[in-house]
Amino acid sequence: MMRRRSHVMTGSAGRRLRWPAAGTLAALVLLGLPAAPAGAAAAVSDATIQVGSLSASATEVSYTVSFDSTSAMTGGTSTVTLAAPSGTKLPTAACYQVSDDATGALGCGAVTVTGTTAKITLPSAVSVAAGDPVTVLVGDVGNPTSAGAKTLKVSTSADTTAVSLKYTLAAERSVSDARLQVSSSSASAAGVSYSVTFRSVDRLSRSSQVTVKFAAGTTLASGGCSQVNFVNDTNGTTGCPAVANSGTTATVSSLLANPGDMVTIVFYGMTSPSSTGSHDVTLKTTSDAKAVTLAYSLQAKRSVSDPFLQLSSYTAGASGVNWSIGFIAPDRLTDSGAGSSSSTVIIKAPTGTVFPAGGCSECFFIDASPAGSQGPENGCTSAAVTGSTVAITAGFDTNPGNTVFVVIKGVKNPATMSSVSVSTSADPGTVSLALTGQTKMSATSQISSTSASATEVTYAGTFQSTGPLTDGTSTVTLSSADVAFPVCSASAQYTLIDDTTGAVWGLCPVSAGPNGSVTATYNGTTTTAGDEISVLAYGVTNPAGSGSGTFSVTTSSAGGASLPIDLTAKTSAGSPVLNLASYSAAASDVAYSATFTAANGFMVSGAGDEFSTIALKAAAGTTFPASGYATVINDATGAVGGSSFTGSGATATVLPGSGGFLGAGPGDEISVIVFGAANASSADADTASISTTSDPGAVSAAYTLTAETSVADDIVQLSSRTAGASGVTYSFTFRTTNALVTSGNSDSTITVKLPAGTGMPPTEDVGVTDDTIGQGCGGVSSSSGTTATVVLSTGSCPGELGAGDVVTLNLTGVTNASSLSGASITLSTSSDPAAVTTALP
């Protein structure tokens, strides 16, 4: 949960200024200065400062100083001087970016640093007219080591009276809400993913660094960006960050997060220490430099269990043989998207065995249980062959305890049929299987949610057939007391896999039987007695009561199994963290994001139309659109998918996207972002709740809406003040109180109402700049009367322009009204809906 409280401050001109608390937003100091007496040296006006991190000792910090230039300045000769407080470390080689926000001209100015004072010469392309808003952005600053009140002074060669900008540093801070997930709990496991999720208390800029120190004995994957994934769980942006490894320490940079954002970094292809017991990972950032420690435990090197082996021929030296090997994998197998860092199934055969080269048509990976990622339950995959050993890449993420099979086609048997050893990179202990005949696997069952009253549950059962399944004749029956199996039509909500051959068929339609059972006619290639068969049912509803039961899979011709299941009382998700892009009453186009721990996995199989869903219920008075765009993230695996939702009043029901890799296992950290909400109209302390079809009990997260907010420090500049002039550019620079969203199909808007009689431009692309981070963005402006509404362009900016950021909008092609005397404009945003009025200069 994240609450934004506000402090009220009175500026020197008597204005009441509302600004976010230092614990959640960058510092912003506002000065309204009276005009200088005649003959006195002038000073800049409307000066503000934003410090990317308010933590003492933070490094790689961005400092953004914005002001209205009272006097004109000339590019290449005029200067801006920043005198920082004692202990500040100003960079000597970084870009000191100067921009004229009225014209959009910007560049890096030459700088002379003397102690804690920087004198910046305006770039030759940046000449500033009197009254233009100016922004100076400096990165890579080091904060003083001491906490407390600080003052930075700004002046220019044209406005020489220094203006003091005050801010307060807290004692050295750490990130919060940190959590760690490790895909394998086995010592010496390889191909392991380590996922760290945390709230960045202070801003992370492109130059900020996140340092993760792993336990001694850990081996980090090489390969840079392809082995590391970054996700902003608050706004849904993803990226391939820069990473530098040194020993067991990874330093990650080139990522963006606003203060308070939840972020996840996933490291793939890791090798865990060989020692068992408790281990630690430490995490810190240059913005929040106090390290936090995250503990985890490793068990003695583990092995797969209940292994199965079946060959199409057991003749020594035979060619064109199909090998099928199965087992229960205690730990998760991961598909990183880069084969070199994905988990593998390793088969070491006798000398003389010849495995095929490992193309897609020769190797198949099958997860016969509810998978950890969306997609088909079986599919061709890649493999690496070294002599008589083959390492088969996991085709997708599995869940711990799943039943897994690999099928290899076209093998040449060795001259001596002795034995093979089987292991996975996640469970590196080996098991031995004789090549002299079939090894039978015990029947297994697994359900994606063991919660009473769970819906959209996947039931999976695997057994060794005693006879063939015949096309059009054999039937398959599933039953479990008080369980509701859906009756499907054309969409394949029931799947049968021949784990021995890798073939898969849908089993729809089915007919209802007694006590909730269903029966389907088998329509597929005739199978062989002894083949391992898996049947998966999607969209099942668990009974309301807890306790032990059975799940039976029977066939008319191939045997079956009665398999135990245990249901718990109704479960809930855990540890919810809630963020809103805007905490203003009556705000619209708001993104709601929640990060939580799934007690049970959810399933998006790609088979049929019965998918798990996530429900986000906000406070009464909130309105979600009837349908819209959402993002779902599995922070444990790094999987991200564009999704959709249906809205009903204050509830959004999110359907994770079909076609990505979005399933989840028990204990996975999940983030969901819903775009386009309209906040309730009144200020209040509110509560949201989160539930899933797998964890139907609701868990609450509190938040507080403020009275309607407005932007602050609105500065207006015109390229021409002549009445009736055409082709005029209107520049608006202001500070947001709440964030503006640019990552969904319900993007935030900026609304500007110009004076009566103004000639408005046609619908056009316009420039929007986040001056705080120096990021140019885009928008589309459309007009009605003298009101222009600018919709921020999806993907043109970072996922959101942060709360408290200074933003500039340039509206071109305007024709001035016939009289500008006493004229004013009003400005609001969808996140800060209370309009502010500013007189034209």
Overview of this structure, please?
There is one protein chain. With 841 residues, this protein is an all-beta fold. It has no helices and 61 strands. The strands form 11 sheets. Strands 3-4-9-6-7-8-5-10-11 form a 9-stranded antiparallel sheet, with no helix packed on it. It is elongated and about 100 Å long. The chain starts with 5 loop residues before the first strand and ends with a strand.
Provide keyphrases for this structure.
single chain; 841 residues; mainly beta; 9-stranded antiparallel sheet; 61 strands; 46% strand; elongated
Query: Number of DSSP strands?
Result: 61
**Whole-angstrom Rg:** 31 Å
| Gross geometry | elongated
Arithmetic mean of pLDDT? 89
Total number of helices: 0
Give the oligomer, counting copies of the same chain as homo and different chains as hetero.
Answer: single chain
Coarse structural class: mainly beta
Beta content: over 45%
Termini separation: 43 Å
The low-confidence runs, each spanning 5 or more residues with pLDDT under 50, are 1-36
- Largest β sheet strand count, sense and barrel closure: 9 strands, antiparallel
Query: What is the strand arrangement across the widest sheet?
Result: 3-4-9-6-7-8-5-10-11
Helix % is under 10%
Short overview:
By secondary structure, the chain is an all-beta fold. The protein contains no helices and 61 strands.
SSE diagram, text form:
Elements: E1 6-10, E2 16-20, E3 45-51, E4 61-68, E5 79-83, E6 96-100, E7 105-114, E8 117-121, E9 133-141, E10 148-156, E11 163-169, E12 176-182, E13 192-199, E14 209-213, E15 228-232, E16 238-239, E17 242-246, E18 249-253, E19 262-270, E20 277-285, E21 292-298, E22 305-311, E23 321-329, E24 344-348, E25 363-367, E26 378-380, E27 383-386, E28 389-393, E29 402-411, E30 419-424, E31 431-434, E32 444-447, E33 457-464, E34 475-479, E35 494-498, E36 503-506, E37 510-512, E38 518-521, E39 532-540, E40 547-555, E41 560-567, E42 574-580, E43 590-597, E44 614-617, E45 627-634, E46 639-648, E47 651-655, E48 669-677, E49 684-692, E50 699-705, E51 712-718, E52 728-735, E53 740-741, E54 749-753, E55 764-770, E56 775-784, E57 787-792, E58 800-801, E59 806-814, E60 824-829, E61 836-839
Antiparallel strand pairs: 1-2, 3-4, 4-9, 5-8, 5-10, 6-7, 6-9, 7-8, 10-11, 12-13, 13-19, 14-18, 14-20, 15-16, 15-19, 17-18, 20-21, 22-23, 23-29, 24-28, 24-30, 25-26, 25-29, 27-28, 30-31, 32-33, 33-39, 34-38, 34-40, 35-36, 35-39, 37-38, 40-41, 42-43, 43-48, 44-47, 44-49, 45-46, 45-48, 46-47, ...
